[in-house]
């Protein structure tokens, strides 16, 4: 037996967002159909995470546009091809906020008969786009570095170029820290990946700075050599971002969460022991499906009360858990008999009452 009670934390509704003054976010929101949920508290919690994610995207979008615009002015003054590439790159990367903003907005839609778990997985799809953009950043930086290694370009107004590179690095690093911090806070792998993307772009800007310094010291090949080193750094960022998204797509969770869930279940009055525990991320919210064993002499009503208590404790104590389905099994000889019709349909022919080892 089970239930799907979800829990929020008392955040207030705020469907009228135009007063916030962010036209970019408002434009995206107008594309999305309004949503409804059965539980007001659950809606508040989901909306708060989505609003926070959208706020991060809007602010970081504006920061990156201002950063790239400042670099564009210096490009016009210096004629630096390297800085031009970095500037165009930063303008393009500011637009990565678009797929994520759409994903956050789509994720707020109510579940349907076709998408019964809702639309939270849209974030993971946006994460794939971001990983591809990081890969494109690495290819672009590597190509430009190799090209300049064999065909060095003269750079003028080195002081201005260095200043613009610093602006590019600081802007991207600020955005990276902001996105990563909030992404981890709300459990969004896609937002964390986008923060890592911004960090990779900061490395690209830093390459322009160090290259300009090398040229000023009479080392014309310093720029492309440092560019190649920065490309390697971007590849490490790509690895981390790809791993983050891969884990989400494969329904991976931190094993410590499973251990915590086991402890919560074991401490619940009426539970003999925990059975199988399955956790998965849907967007930036966890969902749990667990089996618990109770005294086989319990009545249906008593077992249901235990299941509800387990669910309530999990939702309160397991970070980012939005919903849990709890199934009770009799703990005793009746367990094997009760599951006999299902054993042949389960992998390995086991009863499924114990979690499989990782």
UniProtKB/TrEMBL annotation:
Cellular compartments per GO CC: plasma membrane
Gene3D superfamilies (UniProt xref): Cation efflux protein transmembrane domain, Cation efflux protein, cytoplasmic domain
Tagged with keyword Transmembrane: yes
Every Cation efflux protein transmembrane domain range: 59-250
The species this protein was found in: Herbidospora solisilvae
Gene Ontology process terms (BP): intracellular zinc ion homeostasis
InterPro entries: Cation_efflux, Cation_efflux_CTD, Cation_efflux_CTD_sf, Cation_efflux_TM, Cation_efflux_TMD_sf, CDF_Transporter
Transmembrane segments: 56-81, 87-104, 125-143, 155-175, 225-242
Protein name: Cation diffusion facilitator family transporter
Principal location class: membrane
Organism taxonomic ancestry: Bacteria, Bacillati, Actinomycetota, Actinomycetes, Streptosporangiales
Region (Disordered): 325-358
GO MF assignments: cadmium ion transmembrane transporter activity; ferrous iron transmembrane transporter activity; zinc efflux antiporter activity
PANTHER family named in the record: MITOCHONDRIAL METAL TRANSPORTER 1-RELATED (PTHR43840:SF15)
Record carries keyword Transport: yes
Membrane topology term: Multi-pass membrane protein
Segments of skewed composition (Basic and acidic residues): 328-337
Family per similarity comment: Belongs to the cation diffusion facilitator (CDF) transporter (TC 2.A.4) family.
Subcellular location: Membrane
Pfam families: Cation_efflux (PF01545), ZT_dimer (PF16916)
Domain Cation efflux protein cytoplasmic: 262-330
Keywords for the protein's UniProt record, in alphabetical order: Membrane, Transmembrane, Transmembrane helix, Transport
């Amino acid at each position: 037996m089970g239930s799907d009670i979800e829990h929020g934390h008392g955040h207030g509704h705020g469907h009228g967002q135009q007063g916030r003054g962010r036209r970019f976010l408002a434009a995206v929101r107008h594309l999305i159909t309004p949503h409804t949920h059965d539980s007001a508290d659950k809606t508040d919690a989901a909306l708060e995470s989505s609003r926070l994610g959208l706020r991060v995207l809007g602010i970081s979008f504006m920061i990156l546009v201002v950063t790239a615009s400042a670099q564009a002015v210096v490009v016009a003054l210096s004629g630096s091809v390297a800085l031009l590439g970095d500037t165009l790159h930063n303008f393009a990367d500011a637009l990565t906020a678009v797929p994520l903003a759409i994903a956050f907005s789509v994720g707020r839609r109510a579940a349907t008969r076709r998408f019964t778990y809702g639309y939270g997985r849209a974030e993971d799809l946006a994460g794939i786009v971001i990983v591809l953009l990081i890969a494109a950043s690495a290819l672009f930086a590597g190509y430009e570095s190799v090209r300049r290694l064999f065909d060095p370009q003269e750079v003028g107004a080195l002081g201005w170029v260095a200043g613009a590179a610093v602006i590019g690095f600081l802007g991207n690093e600020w955005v990276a820290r902001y996105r990563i911090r909030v992404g981890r806070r709300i459990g969004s792998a896609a937002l964390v990946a986008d923060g890592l993307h911004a960090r990779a772009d900061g490395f690209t800007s830093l390459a322009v700075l160090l290259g300009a310094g090398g040229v000023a010291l009479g080392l014309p090949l310093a720029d492309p050599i440092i560019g190649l080193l920065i490309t390697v750094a971007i590849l490490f960022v790509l690895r981390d971002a790809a791993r983050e998204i891969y884990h989400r797509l494969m329904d991976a969770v931190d094993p410590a969460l499973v251990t915590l869930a086991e402890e919560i279940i074991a401490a619940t009055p009426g539970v003999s022991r925990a059975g199988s525990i399955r956790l998965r991320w849907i967007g930036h919210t966890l969902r749990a499906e667990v089996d618990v064993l109770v005294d086989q002499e319990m009545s249906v009503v008593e077992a249901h009360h235990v299941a509800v208590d387990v669910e309530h404790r999990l939702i309160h104590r397991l970070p980012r858990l939005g919903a849990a389905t709890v199934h009770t099994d009799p703990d005793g000889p009746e367990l094997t008999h009760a599951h006999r019709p299902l054993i042949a349909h389960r992998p390995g022919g086991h009863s499924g009452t114990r979690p499989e080892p990782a």
